[in-house]
Amino acid sequence: MRPRLERLAPAIAIALAISLQGCSLAPTYHTPNVPLPEHYKEQAGVDSKAWHPAQPADQLKAPWWQLFEDKQLDDLQQRLLAANPDLAAALAHYDASQAYASQLHAGLFAQVGASLSPLRQRQSDRKPLRGSSQPSVYNSDTAGFSLSFDPDLWGRIRNQVAAGDAQAQASADDLAVARLSLQKQLATLYVQARGLDAQSRILKTSLDDYSQALQLTRDRYEGKIASELDLTRAQSQLAEAQAQLDDVKAQSDLSEHAIAELIGVLPSDFALVHDADPLSVPSLPQALPGRLLQQRPDIAAAERRVFAANANIGVAKAAWYPDFSLTGLLGGQTQGSGNLLAAANRYWALGPLINLPIFDGGRRSANERQARAEFEEAAAQYHSQVLRAVREVEDNLGQIQDLQRESADQQAAVDAAQSAERMAMSSYEAGAVNYLEVVTAQTTALQAQRRLQEVDTSRLQAHVGLLVALGGGWKSAS
Fold first, then answer.
1. Angle at alpha carbon of residue 434, lines to 243 and 209, rounded to 5°
2. Is the pTM of this model over 0.90?
């Protein structure tokens, strides 16, 4: 009876291992609970039931920058996706994380190997216990197969795989973060460049007006109607406007160089098509539902890292239990003659291997404390990321509303300043005022127009910020 039980022992061990494979020591995972407001402070009318915890990124099909309805911006964004070196580096990092996750998956399967060792060797004449009939030189041929399998009784490997998969998913979200950040930089620079084009057009128009005013003042001076002081003021005003135009040109060049870098080309090989016409302002829906934050890849990445840290607690706890594995060997060995597969030359081995931890100086306890601390850290970072996301949405919503009101007020200032400029010029031509009144009115009108353009540029950039803060915009159906 006992020999029979000994023969059945490997089969019993295998059956026990299979029955315990569903065991996992990782704590039950729950997405960290982050309290969220019922609505955005800077936008009324948001449905409080629309809030949901952040989930892995739900990518939008429509590129968000197309809401600005500008073909050149769309072309530049496509070139960025194709050739930006920072994006290529982020993609390579993602590929590496995917490969590492695949390495961890290999631990779920049995490892099979084969070996072949045809040797010609000589043994020492003074080898201990050497028989007198043994030859000094002989062949030693060995061939065999090996198999090992870890049944993962305590879920150590499965938790490592789960953590690796979560880290790979987080890396995919990191890639989306890098892509979204670069797209934001490009869109912000492009809006700035278009604003500078508009500033240039305003200054060129003013230069034309100032040149005509200078010629008028020169004619009046030569006719001894205007003073030399008036002429000097007109010349100074024209030169100052030209200097401002030169400054705008310098800023425009810097924007163009930065855009060239983003799309992966040398500044000498790139020229931006200048266009002073205003960009389309994306229209906001009446309410921005909180579920749009699910699209943010940084939130999704933070959540996946919380999951990975939770799985790593299970890995650390499994180290307290015996490590059980199954090993099998099968092969043949000869001394240079005979068939390797003959019954007399075969060898085999089959059985479980058990490694029982007894004392390690507190290493396992420290590893478990570290894993739990890393989970708390990841959960806190997730909380921080969600709060940052809400704050960024609020910031940009507030900026859009405030800048919209400022733009309307500034437009009124422009209208009044241009009216004052026309009246001052008419009064000067009639000899009712000196040229100082004209200079003051023209300078005020120019400053008002430039300020209005700066406000409109900032408003468009706030729309870019809002689109990115929401993870890439919103679907029209929302």
1. 40
2. no
Confidence tier at 4 by pLDDT (50, 70, 90): low
Q: Within a domain: residue 354?
A: no
- Mean pLDDT lowest for which of 136-145, 186-195, 314-323, 410-419? 136-145
The structure tokens 């425009």 sit at: 252
Task: Give the residue-averaged pLDDT of 166-174.
Answer: 94
Residue 398 lies in a domain: yes
Number of domains the chain is built from: 1
Domain with 166 in it: what CATH number?
A: 1.20.1600.10
Rounded Cα–Cα distance for residues 380 and 375 (Å) = 9
d(CA 184, CA 473): 12
**Distance of CA 420 to CAs 83, 321, 378, 423, Å?**
51, 87, 61, 5
